[in-house]
């Protein structure tokens, strides 16, 4: 049974998830900001990070990547379509906000670029990386089928869906991703979004106003 810790970080309260096992190993998803807080939390809980996985490369999901990667010496995984976004503020969106610094993150090595949907097996972490574009062209959802949850970034929210007015966004593609990749999961699957509260597939099927009539 995996333990999922959630931390709302940075100026727009982006959810970072730390998924850990009984052996105190962990995987960090979307370390968006507040690197010192994350590093302290990992150390104080006696956790050993094995990797960082990104749902997409908008600035609020990548701000602490370099610091966490350097301290724990772990690989960073990201969709191939958004590798160039990491160091480009015009693509990752940080250049749109004068109050924010330009977010520039070092690109991962070639062998940590996700080019196709695939299953990852890292220690006893087993999960699927499925492509759910629409919010951004390289958005990925990570589905822990055996453990009954999915980390979906800004694709699907409680009573909402991801915005599509940013670079490479598409409402049509987003809704197709949600219906074809997420709503096909068991209804009791927990959805961990990039912002806000967690929800379930069944709850969103029944009550999410953005999905009605698709």
UniProtKB/TrEMBL annotation:
CDD domains, A to Z: metallo-hydrolase-like_MBL-fold
Designated name of the protein: Metallo-beta-lactamase domain-containing protein
One Pfam family matching this protein: Lactamase_B
Residues of the Metallo-beta-lactamase domain: 13-195
Cofactor requirements of the protein: Zn(2+)
Annotated keywords: Hydrolase, Metal-binding, Zinc
PANTHER family cross-referenced by the UniProt entry: HYDROXYACYLGLUTATHIONE HYDROLASE GLOC (PTHR46233)
């Amino acid at each position: 049974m995996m333990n999922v810790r959630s931390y709302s970080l940075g100026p727009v309260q982006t959810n970072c998830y730390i998924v850990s096992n009984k052996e105190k190993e962990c995987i960090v998803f979307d370390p968006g900001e507040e690197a010192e807080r994350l590093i302290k939390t990992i150390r104080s809980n006696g956790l050993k990070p094995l990797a960082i996985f990104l749902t997409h490369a908008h600035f609020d999901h990548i701000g602490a990547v370099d610091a966490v990667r350097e301290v724990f010496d772990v690989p960073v995984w990201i969709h191939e379509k958004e590798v160039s976004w990491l160091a480009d503020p015009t693509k990752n969106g940080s250049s749109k906000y004068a109050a924010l610094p330009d977010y520039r993150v070092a690109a991962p090595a070639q062998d940590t670029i996700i080019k196709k949907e695939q299953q990852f097996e890292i220690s006893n972490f087993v999960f699927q990386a499925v492509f759910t574009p629409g919010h951004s062209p390289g958005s990925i959802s990570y589905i822990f089928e055996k453990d009954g949850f999915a980390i979906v970034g800004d694709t699907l929210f409680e009573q909402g869906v991801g915005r599509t007015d940013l670079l490479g966004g598409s409402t049509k593609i987003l809704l197709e991703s949600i219906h074809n990749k997420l709503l096909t999961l068991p209804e009791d699957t927990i959805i961990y979004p990039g912002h806000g509260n967690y929800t379930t597939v069944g709850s969103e099927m029944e009550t999410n106003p953005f999905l009605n009539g698709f």
